[in-house]
Amino acid sequence: xxxxxxxxxxxxxxxxxxxxxxxxxxxxxxxxxxxxxxxxxxxxxxxxxxxxxxxxxxxxxxxxxxxxxxxxxxxxxxxxxxxxxxxxxxxxxxxxxxxxxxxxxxxxxxxxxxxxxxxxxxxxxxxxxxxxxxxxxxxxxxxxxxxxxxxxxxxxxxxxxxxxxxxxxxxxxxxxxxxxxxxxxxxxxxxxxxxxxxxxxxxxxxxxxxxxxxxxxxxxxxxxxxxxxxxxxxxxxxxxxxxxxxxxxxxxxxxxxxxxxxxxxxxxxxxxxxxxxxxxxxxxxxxxxxxxxxxxxxxxxxxxxxxxxxxxxxxxxxxxxxxxxxxxxxxxxxxxxxxxxxxxxxxxxxxxxxxx
Amino acid sequence: xxxxxxxxxxxxxxxxxxxxxxxxxxxxxxxxxxxxxxxxxxxxxxxxxxxxxxxxxxxxxxxxxxxxxxxxxxxxxxxxxxxxxxxxxxxxxxxxxxxxxxxxxxxxxxxxxxxxxxxxxxxxxxxxxxxxxxxxxxxxxxxxxxxxxxxxxxxxxxxxxxxxxxxxxxxxxxxxxxxxxxxxxxxxxxxxxxxxxxxxxxxxxxxxxxxxxxxxxxxxxxxxxxxxxxxxxxxxxxxxxxxxxxxxxxxxxx
Lengths: 356, 254
Prior knowledge:
By secondary structure, chain A is mainly α. Chain A has 14 helices and 4 strands.
């Protein structure tokens, strides 16, 4: 049987009607939009719920009390800083379990360096030096994490779990097994002072989060991060240097934890090795509630901000309405599970690729 | 990039001369010669292990040949990496679709070479408008009209995604496209769409090397067929002058 085909340039075969893939898409897009915004919806529902509860039981407001808002924001600072770094790592398809103790390490280093430098340099310079050294030291475990993951191909979960132990041990050794008080009034002012009624640490955090949002959404680094999380092979074939990217990525997450540690020790005028211990899982939860997938490839900083506030509002709000604190764990847990279920439902919808 | 004037249809684009490649004692490819002209589709056929993959990997810079040479538009070239081959206009479209599913068509076209612009006159940001515009014109060139340039490519069908991968190569001005089983994972209407894409590439004067197990597809789109068997050329035929039966005989020998 022969199927002769002319060898001269054949006219394009009229494409067998590929109808625009759109009607199936529109409903899906609405669903996707809702799923993308789920953290903000959670947040709105929570605030509404606490507001109603508060009015009904105390006849007072929850949301319109500036003290509440400020307390929640201050509460959210450290988990949010960890969560911004964690967002980058999770989008790349990894996870950084060492952030909590890197934060503690940085807090202890900041306390020691500031105490050591204050007599010689004066208050302000000592604070500057201590903060820079602490963030710089935090970059070291980040670099090791990056090398483990990028060069030695250790799975991120295991590599950073190892670093979790190392950073924890080093931080406790440096702290001598106790908390390290800081005697520097400039540092205390940084941690507790305010300008126009807004605490400095909130301003610092807001600026940092905006920078991270820019880095993720508007730069090549951010774009490559999404590509690597979705399909590392495609990223490599497109000429992206994955090793170099991952090295920088884990250094970045280490430095986020470092900044969180510095702000922690400023706020409490003390460095503690266990400063970030309870916050690591909160940071992962914030990222997941914020819409990122633990499979990598999706997530945003703005979603993570909402996720971090969902957790902070639950924790603060339940105390505010005088519920036993253990309900916090249950509520945050339920929110995480609902969030992941939404993510999976959305995947199922968009996973079935529309066929012509 | 591509040197000189655009090649005219029929000019020789790529020539492979006496190419051999061995991995230790294993001779994967032995003294193979072939050429690809502008506007020509050359099918590579052969059983598993016949050397098709070794051949395209040598052409696309993944392997360095043990012997022989590769000429691009008459000049001897050697590629230390796939990146170098790509810079010279030889692009490989992989079977498993080298796309980042979570990114848009534009972002995939520009993956690894994203254009930037300055917001507010100073802040460097990704130039998404430029990526979307390039996506639109490139896909239109392939007779593939998309209205949702902001959707991730995971929303598109297999054939459409194949078109995006081809679109990326076209945008970066690939002169030779190597396609490894481009229709293998697709349904029948989608296969037809890809075949029509290959006709478009032909009409634009590009050279296509097309690996397939599917004789139907080969006979629908190729001008010539090169059959390999155990690393050597088993035969080369103009599609117009051969039959399925003859090709199968060449593939299995005897």
